[in-house]
Amino acid sequence: MIIVTCYKCKRKFNLEEQEIADGLAHLGKPNAKYYPGRCPNCHAQTKISLKGLKLPPPTTPLVVEAAAAEEAQAGESTPEEAPEGD
Ligand SMILES: [Zn+2]
Question: For ligand 1, a single-atom ion, which residues have Cβ within 5 Å?
Fold first, then answer.
């Protein structure tokens, strides 16, 4: 677990090593020196130094699913399933 402080809004958020490893694999930069951690509050990207971090191997299938889910969310938001009344 890594605690990151957003450079923009100064909020602290947590990143899992696994999340970073998967993110780097998704970016195609497994040997990058920095990881662009996205702030859940303001969505700014904060550079996180990976120096000295031991990252686990990426779980590729999960990354693909997450990316697909993100793409789906990027489109128009669909309303939740309406409860059926009879
Ligand atoms: Zn922020």
Answer: 6, 8-9, 11, 39, 41-42, 44
Per-residue pLDDT of the chain (86 residues), as tens digits, is 999 999 999 999 999 999 999 999 989 988 899 999 999 999 999 999 999 989 999 886 544 556 666 777 776 656 677 677 77
Show the CA angle centred on residue 75, arms to residues 8 and 23, nearest 5°: 50
Ligand 1 centroid to 15 CA: how many Å? 14
Phi, psi of 80 (to 5 degrees): -60, 160
